[in-house]
Write a structure and sequence with these properties.
Elements (H helix, E strand, L loop, with lengths): L8 H13 L21 E5 L2 E4 L4 E4 L14 H11 L10 H13 L5 E5 L2 H16 L3 E5 L16 H6 L9 H4 L2 E4 L4 H10 L4 E6 L15 H11 L3 E5 L11 H6 L5 E4 L10 E5 L1 H4 L18 H14 L4 H22 L5 E5 L2 E5 L8 H5 L3 H13 L2 E2 L8 E2 L6 H16 L1
Parallel strand pairs: 3-13, 5-6, 5-7, 7-8, 8-9
Antiparallel strand pairs: 1-2, 2-3, 4-10, 9-10, 11-12, 12-14
Helix pairs in contact: 2-11, 3-11, 7-8, 12-15
The chain binds pyridoxal-5'-phosphate.
Pyridoxal-5'-phosphate binds next to helix 4.
Organism: Nostoc edaphicum CCNP1411
GO molecular function, one term: glutamate-1-semialdehyde 2,1-aminomutase activity
Pfam families: Aminotran_3
Amino acid sequence: MATTRLKTTQSEEIFAAAQKLMPGGVSSPVRAFKSVGGQPIVFDRVLGAYIWDVDGNQYTDYVGSWGPAICGHAHPEVIAALHDALEKGTSFGAPCYLENVLAQMVIDAVPSIEMVRFVNSGTEACMAVLRLMRAFTGREKAIKFEGCYHGHADMFLVKAGSGIATLGLPDSPGVPKSVTSNTLTAPFNDLEAVKVLFEQNPNEIAGVILEPVVGNAGFIPPDAGFLEGLRKLTQEHGALLVFDEVMTGFRIAYGGVQEKFGVIPDLTTLGKVIGGGLPVGAYGGRQEIMSMVAPAGNVYQAGTLSGNPLAMTAGIKTLELLQRPGTYEHLDRITKRLTEGMLEIAKETGHAACGGQISGMFGFFFNEGPVRNYEDAKKSDLSKFARFHRGMLEHGVYLAPSQFEAGFTSLAHTEADIDRTLEAARTVMSQ
Ligand SMILES: Cc1ncc(COP(=O)(O)O)c(C=O)c1O
C-alpha cells in the first residue's frame, strides 16, 4: 500500500496500542481496514455529515456508523432528548413507557409488524427470529442467500457477506457442522435455486431469510419479481418469509423495503436506524407468530438492557425526524447525484464500474456489471478499490473500507458535500 500523505501519527499510536489489548485492535472486524490495507483511522468526534480523527483530519462520512446516523451524526434534537432522558437514569430493567412509544411507531411504519420485541443488536434480532420461525413451523431448516449477512450467530455464518466477505473467510472455525447443516443457501436473485431447495427438502424448511435489498455484499437490489416470487414460494410450501431490514428499515423508505416494493413478509428484523446511534435491534411480525415469544408464549428470548430508556429515546427522536416532510426525497436526490456522478467519472477516466442507489443507501463496484449476486460482486477489482479507498481518505472522504459494503448518506449531507466528494473522486480516479 502506498504510504499515506495524511498525518496519522495519533491514529497509528492508538491503533498499535489497541492491537495489544483487543483482537486485531478493534471491537468489530471490518474497522481494521484489512481488505483495503493501510492505517485505520481512529475517530475523535462526529457531527452532521462529518467525522474528525484524532490527528485533526476532517472527512465527509459515507459510513454513518454503518447505517444508524441517517439524520446526521449527533443531531442536536437527538442529543437534547438524550440529555433529558439521562437525568432519569440510564437503565431500568423494567417496563418503561418509552418502549410503548417506539413500539407503536415501528408498528405504524412497517407493514408486516403487528407486534414487536426490542433487543440490543441486529445479530440478536436475527438469532431470535430464527428460533421463532422454527417454533412456529415446527421445522428446522432455513434458506439464506450467499453474501447476505444476518449477524454473527452460528447458524448464519454460511456464505455470509460483510466482514466475512471482507476477510475472505467462507465460514468460521468454532461453528459446528451440526448447526450449519440446517442452513441452506441459494444465490441472490435466483428463484429457481430456491424452488429446487424447497423440492429437495419437503416440509422441512421453516423459512427464507434475506436482506431484501442487499448491503453486505455491496449494494445489490432485487430483480423485478424476485421478492414477489419468494413470497409466493414460501406460501406454497408453508414456510415463513423473513426480511432482515436491519440495514434497510427506515432507510430505503420509512416503512423499509416492504413498503417500497409492496411485498409483505411474515417477520421482520430491524436495527441500526431504530436506535438512532444507540444499541437497539428488534423483531416483529404478525400477532399470531409474535404471541409465541416469552412470556406471552414459550419461545424464550430475553435481555438485561433490552428496551433501554436511552436507546428508546434516541430511536423515537430519530424516527420523528424522519417523519418530517421531504426527508426521503432529500436522501434520494443527493444519493443519486453521488452515484450517478461516481459512475460518470469512472467512465470518463476509463475504469469499469457499476452501481446504484435507493434512497440513502448506495454502492458501486469496480466491475463491468451487472452485479446481481455475490458471485458477480466477487469479480470486482479489489486492489483498485483499495487504492481508491485510500485516495479518497487522503482527499477527506470516508468510505466503507470494503468493496462488499453499502454506503450511506444522511439528512445532513448537502449537495455541496456531494460535489466535493465527486471532485475528490475525479482526482483519485485520474491518478
Ligand atoms: C442486514 C443485517 N443484519 C444483521 C446485522 C447484524 O447487526 P449488528 O451488527 O447490530 O449485530 C447487520 C449488521 O450490519 C446487517 O447489516
